[in-house]
Amino acid sequence: MPADFRSDTVTRPDAAMRRAMYEAEVGDDVYGEDPTVRRLEERAAELLGVAGTVFVPSGTMANQAAVMAQTRPGDEAIVEAEAHILYYERAGLAALSGVQVRPVPGERGAPAPEDVARLVRERDLHFPPTRLLCLENTHNRAGGAVLPVERWDALVALAHGRGLRVHLDGARIWNAAVALDLPPARLTRGADTVSACFSKGLGAPVGSVVGGDAETVARLREVRKLLGGGMRQAGVIAAAALYALEHNRQRLAEDHARARRLAEGLAGVEGLGVDPGAVETNIVIVRLERVTAETFLAGLRREGVLATRMGERAVRFVTHLDVGDGDVEAAVRAARAAVTG
Ligand SMILES: Cc1ncc(COP(=O)(O)O)c(C=O)c1O
């Protein structure tokens, strides 16, 4: 088996998680009759500090449902410029919700409130209404950066003060909470909708939730059905997510420590640009000074190590449940060989 640093989505459920799936009590969730899904939705709501959540197959559906539930075609959303929802979701905001995006630059994924304020439209016959602000924590393209709590609070206050709703893509909110040693609900405070994934660092095979207040949850259920996300005996997968929530959250600190160690090792390899101090969670982004991403990744693969391309001269390593200390050492050795091309 290669040491697989491509993503924290590559984990396979272990025996205990599979047992929880095997034993799950199930029903038809489209009729609201799956007790395990219900339990998961309630537990996730409690952890995320929202009235309710809706279980969906993917983080992408969670994000897109959140936007669809809170906008109308012709609305505008201010979205952090490197956010997953904008970068990696097939232009879903345009294609599914008919929403126009105004990107706002972020520093390590965190926009400045004054930059957001500048982009909120005045009321004018010519302008689309600005309806929504979309943020991400932790931020994937910013190398797993944590959105500072004070910045989050300031952005929420600004958005609400100007009549905008706020969506938080919290696919990796569990990592942010562990990194800051704060409850996840603190990091979502004030969000109108929040999404979170079980299939990333928590190690479940599939599943995400999207939540908000009671009225928003009702709308999210309608939108989930529209998007084809109504699932039947989904308790089989919800059981894995519940297991992951209870057993795999605190251990994310190990992933963070390994990512930091990996970054320190890679920083010692000539031709690689990486700042270990910038590694806050489980993602390490490396700039390549001598070879292209393709060449570097092919070299890693020859040494039994997998990572992903993040640009012509950048690659991403992600630590997770299925990589250990030996894999970190193997990755540093492989990088030393791969950097010469
Ligand atoms: C920040 C972020 N949001 C959303 C998603 C989408 O999740 P999914 O792959 O389950 O659709 C990802 C996936 O990597 C992500 O990194």
Description of the structure:
With 341 residues, this protein is an alpha/beta fold. It has 2 domains: 15-247, Aspartate Aminotransferase, domain 2 (3-Layer(aba) Sandwich), CATH 3.40.640.10; 251-338, Alpha-Beta Complex (Aspartate Aminotransferase, domain 1). 41% of the residues lie in helices and 18% in strands. It contains 14 helices and 15 strands. The strands form 4 sheets. A 7-stranded mixed sheet has the order 2-10-9-8-7-3-4, with helices on both faces. The chain has a 4-stranded antiparallel sheet with strand order 11-12-15-14. It has a two-stranded parallel ribbon with strand order 1-13. α3 (59-70) packs across α10 (214-226), α12 (252-267) runs parallel beside α14 (325-338) and α13 crosses α14. Bound molecules: pyridoxal-5'-phosphate (PLP).
